């Protein structure tokens, strides 16, 4: 009925697989300032500033970014007013509203999505921004103020 547990059944913390965490900004939350993340992020709230993500950025229908989005991949259902620099794949869902220029390798646009700006598609974003932390965010800000 009762048995002694075998210590071999226990998982040592050093043996456990490390799963990258997902950062969350929930609906009703406003972040004033830049966000930099080494992992993915899911945004349902509002961000006023640049979002720089080394993983995938997911924007829900309630998400608003007033600033630039820099990411490896992005799945957008919300509103972005700013430049999008996506190294791999950008998906604009039906509810997405984009006002700004896009640079990406692959662009998927669902019927109903709106986009005002120019779009450049090439392998350049991945090569140029493979190490996204090296990207100079000030360069974007300066180009906007010089217009």
Cα shape: globular
Q: DSSP helix count?
A: 2
Query: How would you sum up the major sheet?
Result: 10 strands, parallel
Query: Structural class, from secondary structure content?
Result: mainly beta
Low-pLDDT ranges = 126-136
Helicity range of the residues?
under 10%
Give the total of beta strands.
16
Overall mean pLDDT: 82
- Order of secondary-structure elements: EEEEEEEEEEEEEEEEHH
Kindly report how far apart the N and C termini lie. Answer: 78 Å
Question: How much of the residues is beta strand, in percent?
Answer: 35-45%
How many structural domains in the coordinates? 1
Gyration radius from CA atoms, angstroms? 19 Å
What does this protein look like?
With 147 residues, this protein is mainly β. It has one domain (20-130). 10% of the residues lie in helices and 41% in strands. It has two helices and 16 strands. The strands form two sheets. Strands 1, 3, 4, 6, 7, 9, 10, 12, 14 and 16 form a ten-stranded parallel beta sheet that branches. Strands 2-5-8-11-13-15 form a six-stranded parallel beta sheet, with no helix packed on it. The longest helix is centred in the C-terminal third of the chain and has 9 residues, at 137-145. The chain is globular. The chain starts with 22 loop residues before the first strand and ends with a helix. The model is unreliable at 126-136 (pLDDT under 50).
